Every structure is written in structure tokens, then in C-alpha cells.
Amino acid sequence: MSVRLYALDGCPWCEKAADALDEAGVDYETEWVEALHSERNEVKRVSGQRGVPVLVDEERGVTMAESANIVEYVERTLA
Fold first, then answer.
1. How far apart are CA 15 and CA 7, in angstroms?
2. Distance in angstroms (rounded) separating the CA atoms of residues 44 and 33
3. Which pLDDT band, with edges at 50, 70 and 90, does 27 fall under?
4. 42 contacts 31 by C-beta, under 8 angstroms
5. Which residue, 42, 26, 22, 25, is CA-closest to 34?
6. How far apart are CA 62 and CA 52, in angstroms?
7. How many CA atoms lie within 13 A of 14 on its CB side?
8. Are strands 29-32 and 3-7 parallel, antiparallel or unpaired?
9. pTM above 0.70?
10. Going by fewer Cβ within 10 Å, which terminus of the chain is more open, N or C?
11. What pLDDT sits at residue 22?
């Protein structure tokens, strides 16, 4: 799958990003991250930071954080 969303269960910003992907009909895979910020090594590896959500679009070579940026990207590029 070329689109991956790194998210934390119960995170409202992650839900906002997931909702945008769902509404746009994008097939994506969710990578659930650890609740402890210090344990989010996979997120840090792909994005350089440990915050979520993080969207990775492998097909277009895009990695981004911040739910507002992700929603805008989904609406402009993937919808």
C-alpha cells in the first residue's frame, strides 16, 4: 500500500486525518503507534519527529505531519 497513516488510538488529530482519507476514498494502511512519546521510534525514523499523525505517500515521495496539512494534501492531491 502506498499511503500509510501513523496514528495513536483516541487521538482527535489522527481521527481528523483518517476521516479525510476515508471521505476521499483513499486506500491506506494505519500504523498504530505507542502511547509513550519516547517509544515512537518508527514515526521518528520516517518523519524525523515523534508526533502523530504522520502521513507517508510512498508513490509521490511525500511524508508530512500535522493534521491540517494532511487534510489539505488529501483534498488537493489524493481526492
1. 8
2. 11
3. very high
4. yes
5. 42
6. 15
7. 18
8. parallel
9. yes
10. N
11. 98
CA distance 15 to 60: 23
> Amino acid letter at 44?
K
Residue 1 has pLDDT above 80, yes or no: no
Greatest Cα pair distance in the chain: 34
Number of residues written out for the chain: 79
- What is residue 61's predicted lDDT score, i.e. its pLDDT? 96
- Torsion angles phi and psi, residue 75, rounded to 5: -65, -35
Inter-residue contact 3 to 27 (CB < 8 Å):
yes
Strand-pairing partners, residue 32, are: 7
3 alpha carbon, distance to own chain's centre: 8
Question: Given the C-alpha cell 488537493, which residue does it identify?
Answer: 76
Q: Please give the DSSP secondary-structure letter assigned to residue 16.
A: H
Instruction: Report the distance separating Cα 35 and Cα 76, nearest Å.
Output: 30
